[in-house]
Every structure is written in C-alpha cells, then in structure tokens.
Write a structure and sequence with these properties.
Chains A, B: Its EC number is 1.2.1.26. Chains A, B: InterPro entries: Ald_DH/histidinol_DH, Ald_DH_C, Ald_DH_N, Aldehyde_DH_dom, Aldehyde_DH_Superfamily, ALDH_KGSADH. Chains A, B: GO terms for molecular function: 2,5-dioxovalerate dehydrogenase (NADP+) activity. Chains A, B: It holds the Pfam family Aldedh. Two copies of one chain form a homodimer. Chain A has 16 helices and 25 strands. By secondary structure, chain A is of the alpha/beta class. The first copy, chain A, has two domains: about 240 residues, Aldehyde Dehydrogenase, Chain A, domain 1 (3-Layer(aba) Sandwich), CATH 3.40.605.10; about 180 residues, Aldehyde Dehydrogenase, Chain A, domain 2. In chain A, the strands form seven sheets. A seven-stranded mixed β-sheet of chain A has the order 17-19-20-15-14-21-22, with helices on both faces. In chain A, strands 23-8-7-24-25 form a five-stranded mixed β-sheet, with no helix packed on it. In chain A, strand 10, helix 6 and strand 11 form a beta-alpha-beta unit. In chain A, helix 3 packs antiparallel against helix 6. Chain A is globular, with a radius of gyration of 25 Å. The first copy, chain A, starts with 6 loop residues before the first strand and ends with a strand. The interface between A and B is large, with 76 and 77 residues.
Chain lengths: ~525, ~525
Amino acid sequence: MSLTGQQLIGYEYSQQGKQTFTGINPRNNEALSPIFHEATKNEVDLAVHKAHEAFKTYRRLSDKQKAQFLEKIAEEIVEIGDVLLDTASLETALPITRLQGERGRTVGQLQLFANLLKEGSWVNARIDLAQPDRTPLPKPDIRQMEVPLGPVAVFGASNFPLAFSVAGGDTVSALAAGCPVVFKAHPAHPATCELVATAILKAAKACQLPDGVFSMVHGLTHEPGMALVTHPLIQAVGFTGSFRGGKAIYDAAVRRNTPIPVYAEMGSTNPVFILPEALAQKKQNLVSGLTGSITLGVGQFCTNPGVIVTESSSESEAFIELLTSSVESSPSGVMLTAVIKNTYQKGIELLSMNPDVNVLAGSLPHTSDTEVSSYLLETTAQAAIENPALLEEVFGPSSLHVQAQSKEEVLKLAESLQGHLTTTIHGTENDLREYAELIDILTQKVGRLIINGYPTGVEVTHAMTHGGPFPATTDSRSTSVGTNAIYRFVRPVSFQDLPQFLLPEALQDSNPLSIWRMVNGEYKK
Amino acid sequence: MSLTGQQLIGYEYSQQGKQTFTGINPRNNEALSPIFHEATKNEVDLAVHKAHEAFKTYRRLSDKQKAQFLEKIAEEIVEIGDVLLDTASLETALPITRLQGERGRTVGQLQLFANLLKEGSWVNARIDLAQPDRTPLPKPDIRQMEVPLGPVAVFGASNFPLAFSVAGGDTVSALAAGCPVVFKAHPAHPATCELVATAILKAAKACQLPDGVFSMVHGLTHEPGMALVTHPLIQAVGFTGSFRGGKAIYDAAVRRNTPIPVYAEMGSTNPVFILPEALAQKKQNLVSGLTGSITLGVGQFCTNPGVIVTESSSESEAFIELLTSSVESSPSGVMLTAVIKNTYQKGIELLSMNPDVNVLAGSLPHTSDTEVSSYLLETTAQAAIENPALLEEVFGPSSLHVQAQSKEEVLKLAESLQGHLTTTIHGTENDLREYAELIDILTQKVGRLIINGYPTGVEVTHAMTHGGPFPATTDSRSTSVGTNAIYRFVRPVSFQDLPQFLLPEALQDSNPLSIWRMVNGEYKK
C-alpha cells in the first residue's frame, strides 16, 4: 500500500497544514519518503470532536464487541506483512528479527486484552443488596462497576515502534476500556505509524465502529501534542518517553480548567544490586547477563540496567575487570535517531567530566558517524548519595558501576534512590536473608523487584507492574503493561435502586455475563 | 478528660507557636474553651518525620494487626462517652441525635475496614507462574500486590465532625492501607478533634504501634495545611470540603518537585430530574422527600439536592407550588459556622439578584442572628445552559428549580452539566424507558446514579462510589466512602522470581492467608 503522509482523522485523510517533515534513516541520516504533514490545531480539534462523538456509541458496546475489534486489529497488523517490519527497520535501525518479536508482542497484547474482555470480570462488579427492613432507615440496593472515561490521547515511544506505539499497550488498554483514542504519531517512525493506523481503521470499519473511535495526527514540533493534551474533550493521556516530555504533558494536563489524569512512563536507571556471595559465586554468569541487558537493542529500553551496585572487595574488583572487557568488546550499534544518539553522547560526556566518575569501558569518538559504543563508568556510593544527578538516566548502552564500602553504605544508597521502574538484586539465599532490609527499602522505590534476573524483558501479563514512583512515572498507582493497564482509563460508578431493565448486564441479578462479582462483600460467579 | 489545645505529634503534646484560636459556639457566636495553638512549620515537619519513621514499621504489619488497631480505635471512641457528642454539638450546632448516628457510622466504618483487612483479599494478589520451557525465552514467575504509599495528610470536613473528620473515612482507609496519617484538625471543631485524636493515640499505644503512626496538627490559617501538603515526605492527600480549598491543595500538590495524588471531595449540586409520569403520580411524596433531603442537617451535605429539574406542565406547576410552601414552612436552623452561614447567604443573594432567577420560598433577613431559613429558587433550563454558574453549589438548605420546556431541553441541560457526586432520576417504568438517553448521559457525569430516591444518605459499603468527575472531586477514579477508598493509598508492586521465603504472605504458594487471588488469569482461593 502507498503511504499518504496525512493525518487519519477517523475514516478520513486530512492535510490542512503547511509544516512538513520526513522520517530519517538513522543508519545514514538520509530522509525517507513520503513527506508527512504536521497536524494543525484545527485537525487536532476535528479528531477530538470525532472521538467525543464516537464515544457515545463506543462506550455502549459490549465487551465481546470490543474484543472482536481488538482481534481484528491484530489480524490486520499481521495482514500488513513484511513491509511493516521493513518500514520499521528503515525508520528505527532496529533489526528485523527484533521487530518480528515486537510484532508478536503487539499482536499477543491485543489478544490478551481481547481475552480479558471476553472473560468480563475486569469491570469490578460489586453488588450490595437492599435491606428494606433495616432500622432506622432501609438500606438501598447499590451496585458498582467501572465505566470508560472518554477520549484518550496517546503518545507512542520511539524505542518500541510497534509494541508501545500506534497499536501498543496504551492504545489497546484505552480501546479495551471503551475509550476512543487520538494517537500522536512519533516523528521518528511516521511511516510505521501510518501502516498500523490504517490497520486499526480497517478493523474499525470491518466492525462497523463509529467514525472517530481512532484517529492519528502527526507532528514534529510539540504543538499538535500540546493541543491534544489541553483539548477540553480529552479525558486522559497515555505517554511513554523521556522525563522531559512526560513532565511537560503532566504539567499542562494538571493546569487545565478541568485537570485530567496523565499516565507518563518516563523511564529510569533500574539499579542492580549484586550481593557479596552471589558476586563470588557467579561472576562470569553476571558479566554475560549484565552485558546482554546493558547492550540489548543498543541499550534503548526503559528497563536498561543503568546502575550496578557492589560492595568493595577483591571479588568485586575481579568482577568489574571482567565486566569492563565484556562491555568494551561489545559491538557498536545504530541508535533510533540522531537526537537520541547526541543526547546519549552528551550524557556520557557529562558524566565522564565529573571528577567522581571514571570511564572503565567505551571511548569517544565513535567508530562511525551513526554508531555508538557501549560504556561502563564507575563512581562511589558516597559520591552518588551526595550527588543524586549521577544516577539519572543516560538513555543508551551504558551503565554506571557504584562502589559501596559496606553494607551500611549499600542501605544508605538504597534509601537515597528516587522512584524507578525496576530494581534487581542478585544474591544467594544467605545474601538475601542477610540483606532483608535492602529488599524492604527497595520495594518502596520501584514498580517491580527482580531477584537473580535482569530488568530488560517486560512480560505482558496479569501480574506485571510496568510503572513505579515518580520520576519513573507520573502515577505510581498504575501500570502501562499487562491487563491492569485498563484501569487507567475507567472510573467506578454506583447505581442505586435501579430496576433490572436499566442495569448494565454486568450488574443484573441473573449475572448474564457469568462474571466474578463481589456480592455483599463475597466473591461469586 | 481535660483538653490541652496542643498539637498531638505522635505520642507527644507540642505547643511551639504563638498563634491561637478557639472553637466558636455557632448558636451564640461565643468563644469556647480551651485555647488552641496553631501548629508551626516546625511542628508540621516533626509530625511528618515521625510518620515517615513510623511507616518503616507500620507498613510491615499484617492485615490482622492493622484490623486490631482499627477495632481498638472504635472501642476508644465509644469509650469517650457522651462528652464527645456534647462537645461536637457545642462546636457545630448539630443535634445530639444526629451526632449519635454519626458516631455509629464512624465506629461502623472502622469495623468495616477491620473486616476488609481480616478477610485480606483487598490486596489484589495476582500470580503468573513461571514457564521455564517457554521459547524463545523462559517466562519468569511474576506476582503482584498492593503496597502502601507512605505518610498521608488528611483534611477533615466541617460538616461531619466525626465521620469525615479525625477518625473518618480518609484516616481509616489510609491506616487500613498501611499508611501513617498526619491529620489537619478542622478549626470549626478543634475540641472534638482532640478528643478523637486522643482516642486514636490510646489505641495506637495499646497496640504498641510506633510513635508517629498518627499525629494531629491544628490551624486556623491555611499555613499548617499547606506546609503538610508540600512536605516532601507526604505521599498523598485526602480532603473533604469546599471547591476552593480542595483545588488549592491540588494545585500545590501537583506543583511539588515530586507530585503526589490528591483525593479532594469538593461537593456538588446533585441534580434531581423528575420525569413527567412520576411527577403526576407522586407529587406529595416527592415534595416531602425533597424537602427532607434539602433541609436535612440545615442542608449541610455534599449530596444535598441543589438542583431540581422538571418539564413545564400544569403538573409541574402544581408540584412546585406544593414544594414552595413545604420549603417555606420548614424550620430555620443554625449552620456549622458563621463563615458558612455568611457564604450561604451571599450565595442566595447572588442567585436572587440574577434576572433569570426567581425566589419562590425563603426570605432575608433571617429570623435570628445565627439561624438561616431554607430557600427554593427557580430558573429556566435555557438560562442554566447559557450560564452554568447558576448551577454551582450554594452550601446550605436551598435548591434551584430548573424548568425545562421539553424533553430535548432536559437532555441538553444534562449534556451541559459538569461533574457531580450524584444525580437522581424520579420516573415510572414508562418514564425511565422513554428517557433512556438521559440516564446514559447522566451516567457520564456522576459517581452515583439514584433512581426514585434522594441523594443525601451515603451508605458505607463495598459498592459505594462517593466521588465523581471534576469539579466534584480531583480524581474521578476514586471514592472517599466505602471499602474501595483504601485503593487511594496503595500502589501495585510486582515481584519477579522471588524465592518463597522472601515473598509477602499474600503471594506465597501455599496461600497462608486464604485470600482470593488471580492465578494465571483465574480467580482462586
């Protein structure tokens, strides 16, 4: 299929503005075709109004109908064929095999939410039956369930052009909740975005869904995105990207006349703590595991292990020596965009210039104009506690080894941490029992605690929390991966003394959907 | 017991500041004893630091231990005896019988949360078992549950000196979640606050809880409250009160370096729609029901029915005539404070001066310096649609009748509504079937939809939503009444590949707590 470079405003193409841009091949910095048109304020407004209108119909759809839609989207994405992988690879420099996996993840995610809807219990149905004879006043019948918030704005991430983009976790959980989506395409992979958006719209048409249930607008500047976030009819925002981007969106959203929730996943450094006995016992294993996790996808994961903490010892010295040569010899790679590459290099330079930081592996200038090498840097726990900026994320294939002098210093460092998506502890059973306090402290700092594993690789499943305290996200009570992501886009409503014929199916006496419900405080099906 | 007028900072009394104030008897505007000391910034800081320290222990308590604490608080509140009711009545002018009921509600609420903890399934335990043989990569074991956020600041309401105050819904749900509470006492009932705070601290001591699990600070000015909200160690805020107060707290909280969630319940006008057939069939019934709901507790409820919508007809005219004389003849009453009384009178004056508004019942000046009378005012749907300010809350015993010309105008008015805590529809089966669209529109606007009832009277139960879209609250995804209120003060954490001995009991294989859990997507016990 040929690409248009236009906005997809519901079922219509639109090209009102004069501002244009193109995708860039990060492998050679050359412009790609076609030319894309940045959305005007008016186009954003049209898309949101269509979403608002579509919501009137879409919110009343049964869970089964929404499940069909999600399944049809999955089908249509597969239907695009290899051109989707080729396009994404051209725009992002990610290898085809990785994109194959990511497509599988995207399709699997759609299926997971479709299954959640088909099962139906996610709506949290609660029924407290009336007690007409209660004194001094009769107790009314009260029933509660989740209802969708309304049109949602979604901003995709550059580093997952499929799984966290147009048909990614935010879009899918919003659509599953019953919310129309206006998607802001990422300018680093606009062609990939158009392919997937077209697939979603084909699926919407096939399911005879209202015009506006999904729209996509383009933008190289921040303007279309800000117009979206501040539009009075937008009810929530999903975002994956940088702290700067996410925080700017949050700030705009909470200053609206009617503030709205913003679910911004802004990444973190995902500290890895290696405890003494584990360090002594599995040095080589840790070296290969960590090198893999640091350099995977040229280090472009929100869960990249950017900080490694050990306690000073001869074992630790030997380990770091091995890790240094492993990182040193890891292949260079092409990053997603020139901006990301420059930001990575600047971040490394800034850290290197700090008198408390040593560069162990990696070297500037890089092997080519477009490739970057991996870095291992080193500092002390004391320096990191005194200057927490040392622990801020440098997005890319680098990690900072933090040397602590004692267990006490490890605990102090842990206490000083800000919010992170994940933290990892490597330890033997003895280690873990001895460092129980560390585990307790770290649980307060993260969305996910990993034992003897690596933070990269986020399972899309029921028990996943891909989130964490600020500044990892703007809402620690939520996750952007896994089925719980749906709860970001709903709110509870109680129905008091409604006759059966007015009640949603999920709350009717006969339980026609056969879902789990809490009846007078007890779970029943 | 004698009152001190001091801050209760954990288990210690404190009186560092020079600023003082007293409670005022609203029945005669005379100062009450003792003299209360406004908290200094330093005292607020001390209380928060103690809460932060206490959290280290309190968050690790079992649900059963927390349940014992809540039950002990309930016991200690009852133990205070009649002096609690007398003190509250003196400070608020609320009658003893009402306060007896409110004490029952407060104690019942503590018991409800204790039962929730004893049952234990509230933690949303989810387990996705490992698949070591999965290709291309093994699937790790992932388990998720809710953990407490940390120290919570709670602001009580003036209109519920027991049930939404020191040991009210916000405090109880935060303590149940595992969060220490720093309570900002309401200056309109400081003596009542000290009595209840002392009961909580007695219970905490009896349960050998850490110093700082509960503190209470006083303040007549906004300063101690703002110091609390902006304190870096405070992790969430619960508030019940005016829009102005709640919005100021929200604005301060989202502008912090680390933004925190604010759950402000700011009231609403709770529109009541009376459909034609019901209006014709149960005029007298509606008149007495509405008069009761409007004037209950001198109209000082967040769920007071401040707007009544009917369609123009001879039946509607007859109904309004009856309602007018009913409201006119309802007794005058003393409001909670002179400020609330003056704000009520100003609100009525402002509405009365609007050329689109007629005063049907009620008259200025009032029967006495301290009492107010009830009001019924009237406007047209067209005027209300053009000027939504007409529908803003006037806190007190008044209601605005909105006359619509047609069903279409009723729908248009409903569409124009902002967020409310509740809405009520009176209708026969025929009415309700004919106005299905109205019900659908209104569901989008509120936290609770009531059929053929009255909005005052909020059941404390599992299925209650006491919340709603902005400006009714600052977070429509939450409730401040009912067991779901606990979820405001927790966030999910995932545990990946933890050995059994490190897992919280709720997530261990053997399910030692016998709670409901989602295992590989299925609910099990």
